Description:
- Helices cover 30% and strands 27% of the residues.
- It is α+β, with helices and mostly antiparallel strands.
- It has one domain: Gcn5-related N-acetyltransferase (GNAT) (Aminopeptidase).
- The chain is globular, with a radius of gyration of 15 Å.
- The N and C termini lie far apart (38 Å).
Amino acid sequence: MTGRGASALRPAEARDAAPIAALLTAEGYPAGPSDIATRLAAFDDGLSGVFVVTASDDVVGFVAVHVMPRFEHGDRIARVLALVVDEDVRERGFGRELMGAAETHAREQGCAFIEVTAGRHRPDALQLYEAAGYEAGVVAYLRKRF
């Protein structure tokens, strides 16, 4: 992968499906370009979004953020569903750039707050989120698989 080089942050496009699939697969979530193309289309709803960061024109990371209404307060919240930066270029600010894009998007959509979940098996992600001002333990998430 490339070094920091000239970077750019932009909304993901269909042409980004292959590099996003490669990043997601490398992180342990196997996906092919057609899977990602379908997911990108699902996020093209005017509220949610997927953003990529590039270095020297190569996609080196992405973030997917979903905006949803809250029933109990009549406002919206945003949730970061995925954030991946290529392992070869971590610790260079790309994760912060992507989280900034997600936060800007959430503000533009009128969200009251943004949230993210991170597994305990990803201490580097936890560190990134906490350094960006995210609070752990605000709420307990419970999950039931189908």
